[in-house]
Amino acid sequence: MMAVAQKIARAIRLAGFQADGFNFRTNAGVSAGQTVFHAHLHVVPRFTGDAGGQAHQGGRVPVGELEPLAARIRAQLQ
């Protein structure tokens, strides 16, 4: 999983998101915040001055807004 996560992080940078760093994170168990019960890893772009290393706490973004961003990342993974 980490090898794939590193490729995704690289694709995010190449797609022009200009992240200063990344958090790679998993939650194991309800008390740890797990809500999707299969193995997965979050790749969280970080920017200088953002939430101080805390995971995103915002709400949902409409899929229509996310798709163009996802397309830029997918293009870098091709």
Descriptive account of the structure:
The chain is α+β, with helices and mostly antiparallel strands. The protein has one domain (2-51, 62-77): 2-Layer Sandwich (HIT family, subunit A). It has 2 helices and 2 strands, in the order H-E-E-H. Strands 1-2 form a two-stranded antiparallel ribbon. Helix 1 crosses helix 2 (63-77). The longest helix is centred in the first third of the chain and has 16 residues, at 2-17. The mean pLDDT is 89.
Could you please say which CATH topology applies here? HIT family, subunit A
CATH-assigned homologous superfamily: HIT-like
Q: C-alpha Rg, in Å?
A: 13 Å
- What is the count of distinct domains? 1
Low-confidence stretches: none
User: Which second-level CATH architecture applies?
Assistant: 2-Layer Sandwich
Strand content: 5-15%
Give the number of DSSP strands: 2
Give average pLDDT, whole number.
89
What is the distance, rounded to the nearest whole angstrom, between the alpha carbons of the first and last residues?
Answer: 18 Å
For the record, the CATH class is Alpha Beta
Major sheet description: 2 strands, antiparallel
Please bin the fraction of helical residues.
25-40%
Strand and helix order: HEEH
Shape: globular
Question: How does the helix and strand content classify structurally?
Answer: alpha+beta
Strand ordering within the main sheet: 1-2
Number of helices: 2
